[in-house]
Specification:
Layout: H1 2-24, E1 26-30, E2 38-42, E3 48-53, E4 56-63, E5 68-76, E6 80-81, H2 85-91, E7 104-114, E8 120-128, E9 131-146, E10 153-164, E11 180-191
Antiparallel strand pairs: 1-4, 1-11, 2-3, 2-11, 3-6, 4-5, 5-7, 7-8, 8-9, 9-10, 10-11
């Protein structure tokens, strides 16, 4: 009976520790109006073509004290914007993104490592055109401060990655148009109110 009591007390204490750790984690909702995933790819061997996506949603959770975090992003493929309407329409066709069949690009983290006070590496899975592959995001800047546009906290994140588009079935014109695509992520996110905190 004494052993059972000790075991129960230990379990209660462990639950309190776990609850305290969870309470320290902050969830941020991505601000789509200030978040534009960008990509760069060489046109033939000449100019660098820049594009972005105009509609992105998702959440970011951070607990730097416990070295915990998560990233969940969803990008609307039909919001692609390269500055040329005809090219944007072409990119949505089956030989590229196939937006009609695969309307979203998604990213789901599996682990976050904080490499410095304002830097991190995010390990996760990118899904594009129905194909899921591991992709690392290298976060070069994390800046959080009281939100000047409202209540709570606002954070900015600068991250980058490189992928081979052919790995995701987007292989049109390789190698005339290069396979490697450089991705730049400039994200703003706003803290979600803690409902438990009232």
């Amino acid at each position: 009976m004494v052993k059972d009591m000790h075991r129960s007390l230990w379990l209660i204490a462990a639950l309190f520790v776990l609850a305290a750790a969870v309470a320290q984690a902050t969830t941020y909702k991505i601000d789509s109006a200030h978040t534009f995933p960008q990509f760069e790819i060489r046109h033939l061997a000449f100019s660098m073509i820049h594009g972005r996506f105009n509609h992105t949603t998702g959440t970011i959770t951070m607990d730097r004290a416990e070295n915990l975090g998560s990233v969940q992003v969803r990008i609307a493929v039909d919001s692609v914007d390269t500055g040329v309407d005809a090219r944007d329409a072409h990119l949505q066709k089956p030989e590229f993104f196939d937006a009609g069949k695969y309307p979203y690009i998604t990213y789901q983290s599996t682990r976050v490592d904080y490499t410095g006070e304002h830097t991190a590496t995010v390990y996760g899975k990118l899904t594009m055109k129905g194909v899921t592959k591991p992709v690392e995001l290298h976060v070069s800047r994390i800046h959080c401060a009281p939100d000047p546009l409202g209540e709570g906290e606002r954070c900015g994140f600068d991250a980058s990655a490189e992928i081979k588009r052919s790995n995701f079935g987007v292989s049109a014109y390789v190698p005339v148009i290069p396979d490697t695509v450089h991705i730049i992520l400039n994200v703003e996110a706003v803290s979600v109110p803690d409902k438990q905190g009232g």
